[in-house]
Amino acid sequence: MKDKILAPELIERQYAYMARVREWNPEGLKAHILTFGCQQNEADSERIAGMAVKMGYTLTDTVEEADLIVINTCAVREHAELKALSITGNFKHLKKTKKSLVIAMCGCMVSQEHRKDRIKSSYPYVDFVFGTTRLYTFPEILFDCLISRQRKFYLDAGDEGNIPEGLPVVRMSRFKAWVSIMYGCNNFCTYCVVPYVRGRERSRHREEILKEIEALAKEGYREITLLGQNVNSYGKDLYEAYDFADLLSDICRIEGNYQLRFMTSHPKDASYKLIDVMAREEKIAKFFHLPLQSGSNRILKEMNRHYTREHYLELVRYMREKMPDISISTDIIVGFPGETEEDFADTLSLLREVQYDNIYSFLYSKRVGTKAAVMDCQIPDDVKGERFERLLQLQNEVNLSKNRAFVGKTMEILVEGQSKTDKNRLTGRSESNRLVHFEGDSTLIGKRVTVRITEGDLHALFGELI
Asked: CA 222, CA 102: separation in Å to the nearest integer?
């Protein structure tokens, strides 16, 4: 198998540039990092933050204070792209008042040719742009920009990608951690741009993953989430007889008081072996996010998903046989090109059968360069909107029924912070990933507590400390 780990000297080169920027960097400079999109982007931003701190910057949550702004973008849906571009447009006035301000854009959106061209022509105040597989060269690009004061565009169209190990990281939580186990995607779903902007699948060596998680466990992290565009494909590019289920088993042997999660899974690669490991290992949260996208076999084939409705339901059946209390969530796309009312009815019937604990539903969004974007029979917006409302109505009924069923029960909750709407309340999540609100002191943040549920509404549970 082809090894895509970057040579140590390439990482050493970036550390040298970090030192050069730090020497150039006057005291007091601040960096602001803005992240859009998935958890993989959040993990990438933590490494961008780590490199920025190593270069002498102090992180700030206020853009007005920043001397360096990095916008890490998403390309999964057009709404995310337009939001990132709109916010970047708002930074134009900051550049006028602070000439030394450096603005950078990175991530999935800027790895698309048409977006790169728009940024070049319409956002002249953006100083440099770099794609997803250039992330590790951030120090070198920044140094070049600071010295030359010229705009730079470092993209990676067609790049197979690479895996940089040993970059500094600033984790945004002191008790929850993201760990990327692989990058890229080989699936080429017809609606999705990810394989084009993140490259082909490439797995990290298990030794590097285990070393990172062992360090997190020793530091006291309470929740560790493994990340990949398709974690179920882990190891296929590296090992002959070692897969994601084996990796989970090895991780669970690491001592520590932590809970293990993972995302995202592809149904075509989800195995009974993986489900058996989940059922056996106490450290793994009994929660499975298994994207469906459509309940219609015809649409699944058009999406290039490589599984059927029947196969998906069999996976769910086996999960619930092995773990009766497992919580299952999914992704649904409404209005894929050519979706008929019969196809949509198949999706609704599958939702009724599975009774998901939560769904993430989206209106189909054209992605330039994908096969679905040029398919005939694009669904009108009003039809998509009407179907979307019916989908939400059905799932809301399920959510409310499931949440009310928890009243009177106790749950162990990882306390994540204060409620955004009530400072007297804390917010946390259960093993099943349910949001729980309860009164408590801020000293409990980052700890696990037991809560008795007193109320369940559409989106959350409410309880009292025991």
From this structure: 36
